[in-house]
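During the no-cost extension, the postdoctoral fellow (Dr. R.K.) reprocessed legacy sequence entries with the updated structure-token encoder. One reprocessed record is reproduced below for audit purposes.
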Amino acid sequence: MRPVVGGWSLRRRVITLLTVVGVLLIGLAVAEAAVAARNRTQIDAILNQTGPLRVQSQELLNAVLDQETAVRGYAVSGDLADLGPYEAGLDQEKATVAAMRALLHDYPQIGQELRTVEERSAQWRQAVAEPVITTTEQEGTRAGQALVTEQARQRFDQVRSAVGDLQQEILAARERAAADVRESSNVLVVLLIVAALVVVVAGAVLLLSLDRMVVRPLTGLATQVREVAEGDYQHRIATVGPPEFIRLGDDVDAMRQKIASDLAEVREARERIEWVNSQLQKQAEELTRSNRDLEQFAYVASHDLQEPLRKVASFCQLLQRRYAGQLDERADQYIAFAVDGAQRMQRLINDLLAFSRIGRLTTGFVEVDLNKVMGDVAGQTEAARQYADAELTWTELPVIRGEEPLLTNLLANLVSNSIKFRRPDVPPKVHISARLVDAEWEISCQDNGIGIEPEFADKIFVIFQRLHSKDAYPGTGIGLAIVKKIVEYHGGRVWVDTDVPEGTAIRFTLPARPEDVEAAAATDPAEQPQEATAGYTTPADEASSAQPEDPAGADQPDRADGPPESGRTGDMRETVG
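Re-encoded structure tokens follow.
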């Protein structure tokens, strides 16, 4: 490729071309603006003068017709009420004529026709309308009807003919204005076409100049850069063309040299990164396999331990019932310890089995109404609430996508925990509420119980983690671990709010449905309705009769001796911190 020499520079060519095109386009723009202004004036004449004049001429005709009809009706009936349209038509005629005169500055011929209409209308009223009204009023309807002759009709036809001539003149003026609009529009289109041709020609000239001064040198530079990109990092880049392109080629060649010098270091670093990634991949696969084996081990171990433990618990209970009081006091105590230990082990295995089932035995996500779920939770915790004289309330809760058995288990665990960890001599109160935060529902379970110290806020969600002895608060220590796993399985998070003044507030989030988020975004927060409160309160006098009898003689109102209900994932009744 030969270097471009002589002639104008690229910058000078582009500036000259843009200057010429700019002058031409400015001239065309001025002419178009003048034509457009004239066109707008003509359109205004049609829309704001001739158009309203046509409507007003029809109103004028209607006013005259109302007068003639009212006079004829009064001549027939003699009722003064029939003259109401005559007076209204007369007022309408005067108002319409005044409105039309305000628009007739540029239309003297229409003004002449309007004066003709006024004269003939006045002549008709003087010669026909007023005599008929006066005669009917003084001499009766028969005399008034005698004046409504063929000559009277011809006089009114003259008025109607004058209005018709007025309408024809208005229509002719409108047609002339429309012709002027079409003419100015055609001129405007021609000017636009000329401007487009100027732009096209200028573009073609600019394209040819760019091809010769820019595209060809850039193509040569791109060819050499492509050779370097294909692996020939020792190829020296030499550029021809304008001085700007030569400097660009020198910069690209300097970049090539820098890339070649750094390439070895980059390759070495990439090899190290690939080795680290392979090690991380192996560790991730090993961790996945280990987690899968642990879940399978927990499920199998829990399931296989059910039968022998059930047998131990059953025979210990038989010993307790059959030989109670027949042995010494120490023997009865030993048997009670064995029964209690077997039952606690059975509850622990059931909780561990429920924990392992979460996310494994799935029924699929569906739309779940949490208000219905709270109704089920109220039924499940009825006995415990009656025993503790507890009050359970909740505000209006949302509909979310999830598994209903797991969500029932989640809320039942939280409510049972709130009832269990109550303050002595203070009736428990548990309240469930929800609010929309961004694209998530934040659901809160708040009580007036013993509360949780801030340093233990994260510890309570660890499996088998207890903050109290089993004698003070019975349970297995899995309940809140199940809560955490269910919430995370549904894509949310759970935490303890340590800022509440009394009791404990456990909050968790669940993803909101898109339609709920859109509805909340479209609704003004100040206009949202107040939440309706619904709930249950258990009378204290029903506590003793509703409390189930414990086979071991211990007070454990939130105990579940049997395995989870068949077909329900993690259906647990006992919950602990």
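Residues 1-6, 526-577 have pLDDT under 50 and may be disordered. Strands lie at 366-369, 391-395, 399-402, 429-437, 440-447, 494-497, 505-511, 533-537. The remaining legacy entries will be reprocessed before the final report is submitted.
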